[in-house]
Amino acid sequence: MSPEPVRKPPTLGQLVFVVALGAGAIAFIVVVTVGLLRDGVGTGDPLDPWRGLGRTLTDPTTWRIVGLAAALGAAAAALLGLVSRR
Questions:
Q1: Which alpha helices (H) appear in 1-86, and where do they start and end?
Q2: How far is CA 5 from CA 2, 31, 36, 37, 62, in A?
Q3: Burial of 66 (0-12, 13-18, 19+ CB in 10 A)
Q4: Is the predicted pLDDT of residue 86 greater than 90, yes or no?
Q5: CA 80 vs CA 15, 23, 26, 51, 76: distances in Å
C-alpha cells in the first residue's frame, strides 16, 4: 500500500476566492427567496412566481447585495487568513 499524499493547506488567494464565492452565493439565494416571497408567491396567479423571479433578477439592488456580500466575505477571509498565518 502506498502512503497517502500530504495535502497542503489552501493558499491565501484560494481561501479568499472560495469564501467570496460562497458569501455571494448565499446572498444570492437569500435575496431571490425574499424577492419571490414578497412579489410572487401566494397571489393565486400561476405566472406571479415567474414574474417575481424576473423582477428580482433584473433588479440592480440584487446584484449590489451579492457583490457587497462577496466583497465583505473576501475582506474577512483575507484578514483572518493573514492573521492566522502569522
A1: 12-39, 48-58, 60-84
A2: 9, 41, 47, 48, 43
A3: buried
A4: no
A5: 10, 15, 20, 41, 6
- Tens of pLDDT, residues 5-53: 888 888 999 999 999 999 999 999 999 999 888 876 766 666 778 888 8
C-alpha cell, 82: 493573514
Average pLDDT of the segment spanning 69-82: 95
Q: Indicate if the pLDDT at residue 82 is higher than 70.
A: yes
This prediction has a pTM of 0.81
22 contacts: CB under 8 Å, gap ≥ 6 = 73
* Burial category of 18 from C-beta neighbours within 10 Å (exposed 0-12, middle 13-18, buried 19 and up): middle
